[in-house]
Amino acid sequence: MTVLLYACYGVDSAAWLTALRNELPEIEIRESLDRGSPSEIDFAFVWKYPPGLLRRLPNLRALFTLGAGVESILADPDLPEDVPLVRMVDPGLAIGMNEFVLMRVLHYHRDMPEHERSQSARQWVRRVPPLPQDRRVGILGLGKLGALCARTLANLGFDVAGWSRTHKSLDGIATFTGAEQLPALLKRSEILVCLLPLTPDTDGIINRETLAQLPRGAFVINVARGQHVVDTDLIEALDSGQIAGATLDAFRVEPLPAEHPFWAHPRITVLPHVAAITQVQTAARTLATNIRSILAGQPANHIVDLTRGY
Ligand code: NAP
Ligand code: GLV
Fold it and tell me: Which of 186, 206, 278, 307 is the most buried if burial means most Cβ atoms within 10 Å?
């Protein structure tokens, strides 16, 4: 009997267990190590699990994560190097991110922060937005999520550019590659969206120096990880007017501590890490497909490159 260990915390486990049992009726799904022997476990599906868990699973064939970003699992000293780590690439998650980025780009494109300020002051001010073709949006990260958002915005007529580590060619989207081309991407980004994985190279990438390279009055949307942003540098750039507004969905410490200055900043929108949430219905199927591939002797999809860090 093939055994899958479910060890995801901070999510609706009842829904996940029902969906996984429906999708994988031929597999025994255990919710803890108390039943049977840990040596019988072939696969584990994990998120925010207790330290030391992976050390107790000697016969894992693959490790699956509930999230797209894997930096916390890569930091686990017990992560086995010879077991494939498979990250979440879920159609439901992609739909959510696409909606969220579109919503916030349109919010800034259509001057909504200024309209909201006008309403507070009971002022009738008609602002004329530029055409989308004259609005330049830059996307850091052109992976599963970044490329989708870039395409959606380009299809609406926005002037979109994206940045990645290796060269990408995307119809109707200007692409920039590697550290040496980051300044060119920044220079043309009136709205900057961060959809990078958190790695040593991207940690703190939204900082005083990079913010200063954006056009004055640019907007920042961070839907990746809190560590991408140097908090004090962003506040300084907002207070000086270099940055006109920021939408932040992820933070260095989550939940964002009550005393953090982001909460009350008039030009920051704080969201509780909800830009995109792995959806049980679609993701349980993705996981099942991947497990069946492995059982059939095929490689899984979306294996993390441990040296690259994403
Ligand atoms: P992905 O498919 O792995 O794409 C990552 C992209 O970033 C790739 O285009 C990659 O370049 C680029 N990249 C990585 N390191 C780089 C560097 N040093 N310089 C330039 N580009 C670099 O990841 P994804 O599935 O799109 O997810 C992206 C991130 O979104 C996740 O890691 C996670 O942190 C975040 N996320 C947040 C939420 C939320 O609700 N807030 C939800 C889901 C995911 P190459 O294409 O050249 O490899
Ligand atoms: C959420 O932030 C994820 O990485 O899936």
Answer: 206
Per-residue pLDDT band at 7 (split at 50, 70, 90) = very high
List, in sequence order, the alpha helices (H) in 111-207. Answer: 112-120, 144-155, 182-187
pTM over 0.90: yes
Average pLDDT over residues 183-187: 98
The partner residues of 85 in beta bridges, in order of sequence, read 63
The residue whose C-alpha atom lies closest to atom 5 belonging to ligand 2 is 67
- C-alpha–C-alpha distance, residues 132 and 100, integer Å: 18
Range of the domain at 240: 91-270
> Are 232 and 163 in the same domain?
yes
CA of 292 relative to ligand 1 center, distance in Å: 26
Assess whether 34 and 168 both reside in one domain: no
Question: 259-273 in b/e burial notation, b at 16+ Cβ within 10 A?
Answer: eeebeebebbeeeeb
Residues 54, 142: one domain? no
Question: What is the Å distance from ligand 2's center to 65 Cα?
Answer: 10
Judge whether 225 counts as a catalytic residue.
yes
Is the separation of the CB atoms in 250 and 223 below 8 Å? yes
Ligand of minimum distance to the alpha carbon of 94 = 1
Å from CA of 140 to ligand 1 middle: 8
CA distance 6 to 161: 39
Q: Are residues 125 and 198 in the same domain?
A: yes
Q: Does 308 participate in catalysis according to the annotation? A: no
How buried is residue 80: exposed, middle or buried, by Cβ count under 10 Å (0-12/13-18/19+)?
A: middle
Q: Domain count of the chain? A: 2
Which CATH number goes with the domain that contains 193?
A: 3.40.50.720
- The whole-number pLDDT of residue 194 equals 99
Question: Does residue 260 share a domain with residue 170?
Answer: yes
Q: Are residues 212 and 265 in the same domain?
A: yes
Question: What integer pLDDT is reported at residue 42 of this predicted model?
Answer: 98
**78 and 109 share a domain?**
no
Of these residues, 136, 225, 228, 285, which one is catalytic? 225
Q: Is residue 306 part of a domain?
A: no
